[in-house]
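Final report, results section. Input specification for complex C-07:
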Amino acid sequence: MNLETIVKELNLDVRCAPENLTNNVTGGYTGDLLSDVIANSREGYIWITRQVHQNIVAVASLKDHAGIILINSCQPTKETLEKANQEKIPIMVSDLPAFELTGKIYNLLGKKDYTKLF
Amino acid sequence: MKITVSSTENNLYQDSFAIEGGNFNKAGIVSTRIKSILKQMGLAAEVVRKCAIVCYESEINVVSYARKGVVNLTVNSETVLIEVVDEGPGIPNIDEAMQQGYSTADHKIREMGFGAGMGLHNIKSYSDEFHISSEVGKGARLLMTITINNIEKK
Amino acid sequence: MKLSEVKNILNADVIVGEEHLDLEVKTAFGADLMSDVLAFAKAGSLLLTGLTNSQVIRTANILDIAAIILVRGKKPSTETINLAKELKIPLLTTKYILFETAGRLYAKGIVGCLEKVENNSVLD
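Structure output:
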């Protein structure tokens, strides 16, 4: 499934790099501790977080995430958007809390064994 | 502006609790205790919750940044007053510190899940009245007032 | 649903609170940042988190959280376990990541909670 589908299904607000909504989404990761996200997320994942500072772009870029979704209408900083545009990482905003958003996306993507990766 | 706590005669409960700076093992003990006291007094659940949260966020701040602190709890028929005074570096720029996301937390604090820079904002949000003052090199003082609508009679 | 069903859905281990598996839960909140939990989580909710330090137990106590689910197979410290026992807060652990844990629970009808603070909305 590509990002575009998720954006449409969940009515997400796309804040940058819209040309990369064609990115294929292979799974998802929800978390706010950067070291945890770096250690455990995978390429192609959509990253769900409340962190808005520019470090999230570095992490998403490092891990080749499909994109970042901010929860609770958290707004990315100006620096974050600039960096994300440069790195071609779509950042989207949802008004939903993490649990709800994660629940919807997990079920949209369909069953997958995430535990095999550890 | 000096904020004075109401006189002893009107108070239903008054006590002070020490906070040890830097001791994350004990962090939260005072808040848990205060929550228990307020619950036993029969205060409405929502009032107890607000008090517990402002107390906890304040306590974590003291443990995170100060050498030591004290929580002065005063309950009268109308309000719960939670005053938190600490001895520590103080806050150089209060407006900045009140901003959501502003944090001076170190790595150790962040790894514990704190340091998102929401503490003071949360405290203010949950309080009906909020006062904060500080002197750099001495410490900080927070005074939170939570209104009691009615005390459930036991 | 009962906490026992949550345990089954997540193939979780119960570390503290075998005696509380009859607890009813309807909502869940997932977060790794304590301030988020303090600002948003509802009383009686499940807390899904990767944080294993004892402060998670304190936070749960402050907020009257129904039970804590540690995700990604994280093991709590002895201190955390003892505090959970002392404050009577059920503590479970699941091998699933937060993403999958939330996904599985959501599919079975658990919903998110969003409690706006009364005086000032923290979402402003």
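Chain A has one domain: 3-111. The interface with chain B takes residues 32-33, 35, 52-53 of chain A (CB under 8 Å). This concludes the modelling results for the funded period.
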